[in-house]
Design a protein that fits this description.
Length: 318
Amino acid sequence: MSRKAATIALTALAPISWGSTYFVTTEFLPPDRPLFTGLMRALPAGLLLLAVTRKLPRGAWWWKSAVLGALNIGAFFPLLFLAAYRLPGGVAAVVGSVGPLFVVGLAALLLGDRPTVRSMLTAVAAAFGVSLVVLKAGAAFDTVGVIAGLLSSLSMSAGTVLTKRWGRPEGVGALALTGWQLTAGGVVLLPVALLIEGAPPALTGANLAGYAYLAFGNTAISYFLWFRGIERLSASSVTLLGPLSPITAAVIGWAALGQALGPVQLGGMVIAFGATLVGQLNPAPKPAKAVDGAEPFSSTERNGQEVSMDLEGPAVRR
């Protein structure tokens, strides 16, 4: 397996893991606590990574981490949950599937990546395939829910592109950067969850197991793989792995919850998965320029030897 294919496969594990969120939430967690669930996903995972890496932001990275944490976690989770409450699950998934289109536009604006006809058509095909998988006949649309869904997708897309643009500080690994963002996002969510939902509920053993999975497998590891993928792949390639999440959710619903998968849903899976594969055929992006002392998110050549970033330190030779 080539190095790029291995990176794509590892990055794909993140949206595949996120596809299990609905099943875990409905089967293991207390009902009607979406903000508390978002908080329990982000803050414990972020604090754990801070403890493991023992690195804190410095200088401009305090506000950059806060911005990225707010976009990728703190704003994204509440908007996503608001859309989920106001819209049927299928409609919410379709609204969220426009993320690749946002990334194409933002990458052109902030990264100078000129959009191509293929990237636009691939993003549209992915959204269409997802709609066939999850959208049910007679699905209701709610204006507030649709706006919240679009804003959640825009927030995550902006976070993806800015993560690509800013890179990471000299000598700081992707694991530490993930911890900064999760902690910042959790801090944003904490007062919102307390104000809107009140004190935390009493938790059972099943609840604790569900939250442990969401915090560490579904969030700490998955977001690390996601941000690592952003380092090494183009922003559009990474975001076009997103349709794997609703596809995984549909498969889990069929296997574990007895939900039906008909020919239309299977056809949608083929289209969405095909768009995901085509999205990985884009040529490798040019190495990003370092900004404010940050290391660019890509492999490059130094003194004729290839280098790349390790997990928790500066570039190492390989």
